[in-house]
Write a structure and sequence with these properties.
The chain is built from 14 helices and 5 strands. By secondary structure, the chain is α+β, with helices and mostly antiparallel strands. Strands 2-1-5-4-3 form a 5-stranded antiparallel beta sheet, with helices on both faces. A hairpin with a 5-residue loop joins strand 1 and strand 2 (149-152). The longest helix is centred in the middle third of the chain and has 18 residues, at 190-207.
Length: 303
Amino acid sequence: MDELPEPVPGPLEPGGAALDRRAELSEFLRSRRARLKPQDVGLPDFGRHRRVPGLRREELAQLAGVSVAYYTRLEQGNGRNVSAEVLDSIARALRLTGAEHAHLTHLAKPKQHKRKAAVRQQQVRTGLRQLLDSMDGIPAYVSGRRSDILAWNRMAAALFGDWSELPAQERNWARLVFLRPDYRDLFVDWDQKATDIVSYLRMDAGCHPDDPRLSALVGELSVKSEVFRRLWATHDVKEKSHGTKRMRHPLVGDLALSFETFGLVDDGEQHLITYHAEPGSASAEALRLLASWGTDARRVPLA
C-alpha cells in the first residue's frame, strides 16, 4: 500500500500554534504527585486534615532530596538548568514508570529541534514497504508521529479497513478510534485502545511540543470527543510495546490477536506493528479467511 502523504493543515489548526511545554510540565508533575498517598511512600497520613489530594509539595521535595523552593519552581514549569540527577531523584520519589521518566525529561530538558523538523514529511523506505507486502497472512502497518498510519499491507486492510479509501489526513489512529463508530465496534476493549492512543500522543507531545499539527489534532479531538478530552487531562503516558487485542470483525467475528511493535533504527518516530494469532486457534482460522478475501473483507464503508 502507498504511504501516507503529510496531512494538509486543517481548518482547526492555529497558525504556528504549539503546546505549552511549561504548562505540560507543571500539569504532569501535579498529576503524578496527586496520585500518591502518604502511605504509599512510608509517610504518616493525617487523614481529614490533608487539604490536597496525594502528596504535598513539601513531602515530595523531602523524598526527592531537594528544597521545597526548588521543586516548587519545577512544578510551576520552570525546568531551566535542572540536572538529570535531580530529575532522576524526582522520578524515583514519584514512582514514575520508564515511559513517565522519559516524558518528564523531555518536558524539563527539551532537545532543540529546528522548527521545520517538526513538520517534515514522514516517508517510509521502499525496502520497508516491500517487506510489508511480503508478509502474507500477517496484518502489519507502519505508524509515525501523531499516530499517523503511513503504510500498510493487504492483510491490515482486510482486518482494519482499506485506509486507501480515506482522505490522507484521516489515516490517523486517534481520529479513527475517537471519531468513527465502526472502530468502536471493531475493538472489543475499546476503552483500553482509546487510553493507549492518548498515552502515545502524550509521549509524542513531550518530544515535540512545537509540532503545530499535533497541537491541531489534540484541539480537534478535544472539541469533538468528550472521552478524548477526559483522557488527555489525565497526563498518562505510555510507549508502544506488545500485547493482545480482541476484535470483532464484521465478516469473521471475534479474534484474539497478539501484536508486536518494532522501532526502526534509522527513524525512532516510526514503528512497524504486526498482528498474529496462536497457531491452530480459531483466530488463526479467521485470519486465513481474511487473507482469502483480501481488502474486500472490510467493505464496511469507511468514509
